[in-house]
Amino acid sequence: MSSTDLANRIREWRNRRRMSLAELGEIVGLSRSEISKLESGSRRVRADHLVVLARALKVAPEDLMDKEAVRELIGESAPARPSAPSLTVVQVRRQNGTVRLLPEDSSVSGDAPPQIANVSGAYAFYMPDTSMEPRVPVGALLYVHPLLPPRAGDLAVVTRGEELPVLASIERHSNALVAIIGGEAAPIDLNDAAVSHAARIAGMWFP
Hints:
By secondary structure, this protein is of the alpha+beta class. It has 5 helices and 10 strands, in the order αααααββββββββββ.
């Protein structure tokens, strides 16, 4: 098998799992550049690389390399391919300039990426357009981690009282974190008692 075959198969599975080089590198303990070298074939894949990459990408080692190469590296017995956890993809729409989530209309599902694969309550949604703030490319799939509080510079889903959750850009104004939700809406102080929940966007995938 050529190094190009190997590079294409590692990169292919990373793209299928909707992971960036940095995200995969963080999971397996390698730098972004090291992952890139493994994908390009400029760095030889060792047995330990193969095992952790297969586990992180939720595939069998044979999906990354041919059976002969796998046998040489890790022997006859290769770990079975784990099933990918499912992830709810909720519907969204833009109302009065803000992107609002519709959790009650959540019939679509997909594979969960590793950063939220085992997180209870995690979900995702597709960006409906790019016409207003927050500016995210149309069609991007955003992953919501409900247990991570947002930080300045993050995107987040913010819920106030009985209102529908809304996508926001998080900024620091003086000593407070505020959510910028677009349209003509005023910034929302995340410390306001009306804010019942704020969840960080833990990653996104661009089709």
